[in-house]
Amino acid sequence: MQDTKKFIENLSGAGKSIGVLTSGGDAQGMNAAVRAVVRMGIYVGAKVFFIHEGYQGMVDGGDNIKEASWESVSSMLQVGGTVIGSARCKDFRTHEGRLRAALNLVQRGITNLCVIGGDGSLTGANLFREEWSGLLDELVQSGQISEEAAQTHSALHIVGMVGSIDNDFCGTDMTIGTDSALHRIIEVVDAIMTTAQSHQRTFVLEVMGRHCGYLALVSALACGADWVLIPEMPPKDGWEEQMCHKLSENRADKKRLNIIIVAEGAIDQNNKPITTELIKDLVVRCLGFDTRVTILGHVQRGGTPSAFDRILASRMGVEAVLALLEVSPGTPACVVSLCGNQAVRLPLMECVQMTQEVQKAMDEKRFEEAVKLRGRSFENNLNTYKLLSHRKRNAELPRSSFNVAVLNVGAPAAGMNAAVRSAVRVGITEGHTVFAVSDGFEGFSKGQIKEFKWGDVGGWTGQGGSLLGTKRTLPAKHIDKIAEQMRIHNINALLVIGGFEAFESLLQLVDARSRYEEFCVPMCMLPATISNNVSGTDLSIGADTSLNAIVETCDRIKQSASGTKRRVFIIETMGGYCGYLATVGGLASGADAAYIYEEPFDIRDLQSNVEHLTEKMKTSIQRGLVLRNENSSENYTTDFIYQLYSEEGKGVFDCRKNVLGHMQQGGAPSPFDRNFGTKIAAKAMQWISKKLKEFYREGRVFANTEDSACLLGMRRRALVFQPVIQLKDETDFVHRIPKEQWWLRLRPLMKILAKYKTSYDVSDSGQLEHIVRLRAKDNSAI
What we know:
This protein has 4 domains: 8-175 and 305-360, Rossmann fold (3-Layer(aba) Sandwich), CATH 3.40.50.450; 178-300, Phosphofructokinase domain (Rossmann fold, 3-Layer(aba) Sandwich); 391-528 and 671-691 and 716-730, Rossmann fold (3-Layer(aba) Sandwich), CATH 3.40.50; 543-665, 3-Layer(aba) Sandwich (Rossmann fold), CATH 3.40.50. The protein has 24 helices and 26 strands. Helix 7 packs across helix 13. The two termini are 31 Å apart. Keywords: Allosteric enzyme, ATP-binding, Cytoplasm, Glycolysis, Kinase, Magnesium, Metal-binding, Nucleotide-binding, Transferase. Residues 18-323, 403-688 form the Phosphofructokinase domain.
């Protein structure tokens, strides 16, 4: 395979100049993208220029266009907004303005642009590219540039990255800033919930999204809101009555608060705006509930970027530079984007046209089509919301005679409760009786099994840890008693939510099928572990919350040294033998090194890391950050590394060490984990329903095939059910990690951004794809 691989060493940027600008509305994570473009650009030998104040700076020239150095992007990873400034620019919309911009770029030899902004900014960039040769001709005729300069700079290449908190750009699952905006919204909702509960209030929250309801929809999913109003799905006539009925029903169920989330662009079937005040008046008039309105406004744009946004932006920034290095004159302008967990390149104008089509469909009241055009991620969120929000009365429910048990196994992970809530409610909607098991398989063997109703899981999405209780005990120890409890409660299917122990448990239960018919039922496992060390999935519930805890702490630790002399921090993360948290946490917090078990290191590596840091500290860089996974090495312990760095760094920097410990496991789940847990649990319960029907014979359920015991995981671009038996070969059981782990490909990226020369396999980097292909397998999308 070697000959088909592409390595970064073979790509050179020598002689190229790249301009980087942020344009339009700011979004958290833009700085991480700028930092990645600058460092990757310099790494491949190109010159990189900051273009301050967006297109305005390009038109005005002068000091607005400055060459960037490695150090000039230091310490900007954790800063919200955009450090190089952004502006809405009227001048660039005129031909005259674009002519001045072209002159400023040619004078500095810039023919590659990296534009970070929304669809307006990217459309402007494409127009500029199309006009480029005409603009140069004009500049030659007016004598402002020579014929030779025009020939040297004959083509302008453009790569876009979408920075927009609204997530309103077609072709990309997530835009830079969306996840951070969700963090701000959820922080506010969690805070409001405590006051609303105290007073039995109804809160109407307005979130941003003039043309796109993504923020409203996902935050409604993540906090279990009672009602959501978005521009893509106007409520049907008579919605006012329906909404009030639902609110009063929830109150009757002893729910002490109601949350209604409204996108600022919410409309009714006749394209009339639905405002927060209108809803408040409606609730007060019809129900007499104490109602308050909160408009979140620019809070959503502010604050530090989340771990997800920093990683997304860093990956996109590096991908953008690779795209510029590989571009040929005939290639259309592209956007680098994320599809599932995969970086892709898409033609910019195809994405822009599709984004404009959504608006057109909405204007023409073709709302279902608008939802489809928004893409698979949006559609799936909407379907999950519909599934969970509309509680059917008993008479409307399909009645099945099936009993499904749900339990947590292993260590607690944030997002487990959201998954249990979703599983219980979807199970009830599907007509099953859902039993919840306390304390994992240990509780199962003791008969700690209770039927859960719809209201029993109210308010669970925002709770950290495991409300059901969880234990690491494996079933083999109590297999007789568990089989007996399965028989007593007539359990027809199992949904196990947990980490590596849950995976081992399912394998043990499958193995016991030959001895106990009770285990011949459909079983599904959802990966939930902060370590993200389960085979068959790229991501696990809980890992994102844990990463955010690590990144937030690293930010604080780095800040603690500001104003003091040069300092290096050695930080130990959890994860068992899996280096996911150390590596991805290192990438998100700008670490200089991350020591992990999967990439063996020796004293020479430690020595070169110390020397590397010593060299860095001789420049204007003041702080260093080194992460170490708890089990990365038996002998090179955190103390050893701390002492080594302290000794070798004498006179240049001093050292501090920090063991993060269980704070990585606690805390309220992040929006991503709430959403991911909710969606995969709903999908798993639908799979269980399908399997129950499939394996129902002569009055009972009998499932004994490999594909009746599966793990539901996210693989690159899709959610897939994989038989646990088949995942056995992919697993290293001694160290409790998968044999192959996708995130190891991110390690060279972390090293490059920390100024190490390294080999980086870029074969995976996108060929230009087309937007339509992304919609081929809708139902497996995230």
